[in-house]
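I'm curious: can you give me some protein's one-letter sequence along with its backbone structure tokens because I've never seen that pairing?
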Amino acid sequence: MSTFLSIYVSIISLGVIFGLTGLLIWCLKDKMGIEEGASTGHTFDGIAEMNNPPPKWWSYLFFIMVVFSLIYLVLYPGLGNYKGLLGWTSSNQAIRSLEESQTATEAARETGQLVQYDREIVKADEVFGARFKELAYEADGQNYRAIADIALDDKATKVGQRLFLQNCAQCHGSDARGARGFPNLSDADWLYGGTPEQIKTTIMHGRQGAMPAWGDSLGEQGVQEVTSYVLSLSGRKVDEVEAQKGQARFAVCAACHGMDGKGNAAMGAPNLTDGIWLYGGSRGAVEETIRHGRGGVMPAWNEILGEDKVHLLASYVYSLSNN
């Protein structure tokens, strides 16, 4: 916040508090010159206005709130850039990455700063951490339960579902069916593999797609031809001559997608023969993908959620297409 805006906010805040306090004090004094409880002479619809002061309980409560508000503004941030005597803040401000967040959290702990979000995270781990371990681990408390087994446990999958709704639904949707550029997690089509271990690895460490742009190297005609061939792989009707020319050019794509176009889970290269399209299967969408490339990013959740939560989350995602 700029210095000007900080001063402006402070003046407005204090001005309202002291202004209303002054107005109340003025109203408590009799300015009418009329006996208290007598009529002021003003009537409307048969109702007379009486010369009565504000109720004492209401006035006392107002003054108490004024004192409370001033104490609050001294102890907590509320007046522009003023940080408050307690050093309290709702969260670490102006962070742009997980690394910056972790650094800010450590710095706050060392300096004794009261960061509400950090305190709530610690409290949540203390309260719910044991429950996550109970659901994720075997009875010995040392080894994780098999993800496929957890997927059959209603209580565990409900916890996994809540984790999904809190952290994953923003991209994949509350029903996990995804959207343009975000994979559908409820079908059997997986870019990086759909085994329990592969799903957990994806959530733990994230994924980064790297479909290069081929527009410059193929040229516009080449993009058209490769598009026709790619569409033909999933049974679409295309110009056969153009598709044959595109098949010859497809060699540059085969390194990732394979000569048969069925993809490679180790690289996250999608299957081009099944009619499932992450960025849309219209001719225009496929042309755009080939011409400009794609670069999707799946964030890593290990350092954010921890492995216990990731394990339960992976079991829920696995259950979506296997139960």
